[in-house]
Amino acid sequence: MADDELRKARGTDVAPPVPVDAGKRNVLGVLVDAVDYEAATRKVLDAARERRPLALTALAVHGVMNGVHDATYNARLNGLDVVTPDGQPVRWALNLLHGAGLRDWVSGPELVLRVLRRMAAEDLPIYLYGSTPETLERLSVSLIRTFPRLRIVGAEPSEFRPAEPGEEIGVAERIRASGARLVLVGLGCPRQEMFVAGMRPLLDLPLMAVGAAFDYHAGLLRSAPRWMQRSGLAWSWRLAMEPRRLWRRYLLLNLGYLVRLGAQRTRLWRPVPPRPRHGRPDVLPL
């Protein structure tokens, strides 16, 4: 579909902005793409149209710090095609360390909406993988209500366990048989990044690891007010909603992130990104 047809499908004749894509940059040893929403959306749509593999994750501070503490996971992150800056602190790091000039972060929930709007306009079907049957049912209803032309050709809940040897082949076959041109993956960090890394060699279509987007769009979580997001305080909103589960993640990891960011900025610490690892992990989470 031509660009002018896409603009008509979106109900606007305003040309889309020129995407910002400055490539991958080192943030505490994790290679994060200095991209905006438009560039990330185009990468996914191009791969969906051309039937080629692409593995994307929207990575927040939690994911970056998991990479800091786990070299194997870090290498897998660095092997993904696209790692978007999910949240202000990661965007700030790209701008502070590398002068990326990004005006906005690229969150998983918002990126999902932008991608699906285009997928629906071009009649490209999608597959949902992860979470629970109940959440997937609510999510499917919500997405169809938002995008009436969207085709969801499969929805498969997580098994919440490691795959048995060869089991991922069956998952890939079900996705291929559905005719999907995009898979949204909601397994939570770090499981979802390992999943998209492992499934990428088996599928000729993009996979997006989008974390809590399933819960947000299913109506199970409420987004932080915009002013909190812009101030980098969205984490405190999540912490207030789930304090017992998230206090360690946000209080301890956020402090460690700031300390390391300061050290990298002042060159007291020069993190070396682990060599990217491609192909399937030894253990694939389902």
Please give a structural write-up.
The structure is a single chain. The chain contains 13 helices and eight strands. With 286 residues, the protein is an alpha/beta fold. It is 49% helix and 14% strand.
Radius of gyration: 18 Å
Chain-averaged pLDDT: 89
Q: What is the total number of structural domains? A: 1
Number of strands: 8
Strand content: 5-15%
The ordered string of helix (H) and strand (E) elements is HEEHEHHEHHEHEHEHEHHHH
Keywords:
alpha/beta, globular, disordered N terminus, single chain, 6-stranded parallel sheet, 286 residues
Brief sketch in words of this structure:
49% of the residues lie in helices and 14% in strands. The N terminus is likely disordered. The protein has one domain.
Q: What's the topology here?
A:
Elements: H1 3-9, E1 21-27, E2 30-35, H2 37-50, E3 54-59, H3 61-69, H4 71-78, E4 82-85, H5 88-98, H6 108-121, E5 126-130, H7 133-146, E6 152-156, H8 167-178, E7 183-186, H9 191-199, E8 206-209, H10 213-217, H11 226-230, H12 234-241, H13 243-265
Parallel strand pairs: 3-4, 3-8, 5-6, 5-7, 7-8
Antiparallel strand pairs: 1-2
Helix pairs in contact: 2-6, 3-4, 3-13, 12-13
